Amino acid sequence: MAKEKQVFYCKECGYESVKWLGQCPGCHSWNTFVEERITVGAQKHSSNKKMVVAPTSILDVTTADESRIKTNISELDRVLGGGIVKGSLVLVGGDPGIGKSTILLQMCRNLVAKGDSVLYVSGEESPSQIKMRAERLGDFSKDMMLLCDNDMDNISAAIQKSKSDVVVIDSIQTVLVDEISSAPGTVTQVREVTARLMQLAKTCDVAIFIVGHVTKEGTVAGPRTLEHMVDSVLYFEGDSNNGFRILRGVKNRFGSTNEIGVFTMTDKGLVEVDNPSQVMLNGRPIGVPGSVVVSSLEGTRPILVEIQTLVCQTNFNMPRRTSVGVDYNRVNLIMAVLEKRAGLNLWGYDAYVSVAGGMRINDPAIDLGVACAIASGFKNKPVGDDIMIIGEIGLAGEIRGVSNILQRVKEADKMGFKTCIIPKSNYDKAMNELDIKIVCVSTLMEALGQI
Prior knowledge:
By secondary structure, this protein is an alpha/beta fold.
């Protein structure tokens, strides 16, 4: 007989436990376990034996070029690695209202315009509501098929019958499997639905996009537990109050990771940003202390961004340190090096560091720029407006080399900067052909002396 079993799942990583735990042993997150009841049935006996698949030598396996479908959205194609791969399962995650459904609708419009068939499955909206949003984005052809249902069996039958090239599931939290008693959106439901969609993608050779919502509180189970199950993971970043949206490729089995696509939100949908550096530097203050331009390499693309700092005397016993868009611990490390190696007495000052434009940067090549911005704010002396700074800082105060330095310098030259401060170990003779002055430094004190 079937009986009910009680289990606990971590909402962040999907770790399973028979009892509730305060801290997850898998991802070490606190208060992330949720209770779920699953029905365990008696084992089914079948007279039909399963076919045994024999292993194959890797030398006997034939390979072919991946068949990619262009979306005609260059920023999206860049993040996907050149286009949509047939038979792939792609997860698009992000906060509600960030633009996931919008960019997928725009992708569907472009696909049907060039003759590809698309099936759009929605478990949240009616066909009339989807059409209202679609009319705002442009004209659609008859090859754009809609299905408003949240039953996985019906969706599976529709995918097999339609034989579409691309299928969009919006969203994964609304789809359910009748055999599982838990509510839609729970870890058990989301895992089972994703496993069935993966099987459909491989057997039917159809590219499937699934949308996953993530709240700031992390209360919705789904995308974090699915990252290891899908072929590609795309995440939307940006503030809903900010016009810029960044689509970042976190995982991609068919291309490079950490590629980004930059968009701006308009009343006609998401519009591509061809020159992100120009957009990020728009409105940059001139002659203001604490403002420095750095180069961050996002995938294969160098982007110039502005680092802003504000250093002021503290009114408390413990100075306050705040960072937005830059790792907090990295900022504290850079300030410690400034105190020890450059002699700046920052212990009695509050420091606020921010990346203008809403980007989040993890590239260590911005270390020297952050240090110069903090020193500029502390001394109240502005850095030259035509100077770009590149370099990683070590604990001994040395300036270490960074990757793809020539691409970064060329981007600065294209944007009209006159001087570029780089690590001495990164100097290349090819830089002499550019119309930009190259200043090589080997220590932090040497770099501060140049600015």
